[in-house]
């Protein structure tokens, strides 16, 4: 079993829908990152969370440390949100463990 | 302020050829990383460097060498390329103090024929 599991692996939705991507982890962490990768593109950091909730524009990220679970929400989704979203957890100073990614497609 | 600069963006090699992927960051970060990304596998750590002059193996170090000669630059070398090294490679740096944040280079798409 992977240390970091994301669900769903693939998600297709219509423009305007509310999107939720989940990340569960099985080990103690110091921080959790949500990353975005557009097709053929580089990887951009969206959020770093160690507790609670963060919001940036239409994106909201939450983490529940006790349940070892994080969610990334996108409100009023748009085709430009189509990308792969990757969850990564920090375990100590050097180790980062990545989820497999969730491929999101938003249709107009 | 360019962040993480990675070159080249694309490379095609023949089996047995060598090449070096270059990575530089201008954010004064101590930690730098090399990852490879393969379909269905996610990002896998090849090597990392906690500080200038130190390097350590990650999950998939075989066939690679790295060099961290100064704080800015962390290069990845393939001495004798193999088809199994066909992948997309990403360099990254991380700040650990305070508000931890990850920064990635734009990636190198490498094909080994």
Overview of the structural elements:
The complex is a heterodimer of chains A (108) and B (113). The model of chain A has no long low-confidence stretch (mean pLDDT 93). The N and C termini of chain A lie far apart (36 Å). Chain A has no helices and 11 strands. Helices cover 0% and strands 61% of the residues of chain A. Chain B starts with a strand and ends with a strand. Chain B has no helices and 11 strands. Chain B has 113 residues and is an all-beta fold. Chains A and B meet through β4, β5 and β9 of A and β5, β9 and β10 of B.
Largest sheet of chain A: 6 strands, mixed
Structural class of chain B: mainly beta
Strand content of chain B: over 45%
Task: Estimate percent helicity of chain B.
Answer: under 10%
Count of helical stretches of chain B:
0
| Count of individual beta strands of chain A | 11
- Low-pLDDT runs of 5+ residues of chain A are none
Share of helix among residues of chain A? under 10%
- Biggest interface pair, residues each? A-B, 21 and 23 residues
> How large is the share of residues in beta strands of chain A?
over 45%
Shape of chain B: globular
Q: What is the assembly state of the chains in this entry? A: heterodimer
Shape of chain A: globular
Ends of chain B: how far apart? 36 Å
How many angstroms does the end-to-end distance of chain A come to? Answer: 36 Å
Number of helices of chain A: 0
């Amino acid at each position: 079993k992977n240390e970091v599991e994301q669900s769903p692996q693939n998600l297709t939705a219509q423009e305007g829908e509310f999107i939720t991507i989940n990340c569960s982890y099985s080990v103690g962490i110091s921080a959790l990152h949500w990353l975005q990768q557009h097709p053929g593109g580089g990887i951009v950091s969206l959020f770093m969370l160690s507790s609670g909730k963060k919001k940036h524009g239409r994106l909201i990220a939450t983490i529940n440390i006790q349940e070892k679970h994080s969610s990334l929400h996108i409100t009023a989704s748009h085709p430009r949100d189509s990308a792969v979203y990757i969850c990564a957890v920090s375990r100590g100073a050097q180790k980062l463990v990545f989820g497999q990614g969730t491929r999101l497609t938003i249709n107009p | 302020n360019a962040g993480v600069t990675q070159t080249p963006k694309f490379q095609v090699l023949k089996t047995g050829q060598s090449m070096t992927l270059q990575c530089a960051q201008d954010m004064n970060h101590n930690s730098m990383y090399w990852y490879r990304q393969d379909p269905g596998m996610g990002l896998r750590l090849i090597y990392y460097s906690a500080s200038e002059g130190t390097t350590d193996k990650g999950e998939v170090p075989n066939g690679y060498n790295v060099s961290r000669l100064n704080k800015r630059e962390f290069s990845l070398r393939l001495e004798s390329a193999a088809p199994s090294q066909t992948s997309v490679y990403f360099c990254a740096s991380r700040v650990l103090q305070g508000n931890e944040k990850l920064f990635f280079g734009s990636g190198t798409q490498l094909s080994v024929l």
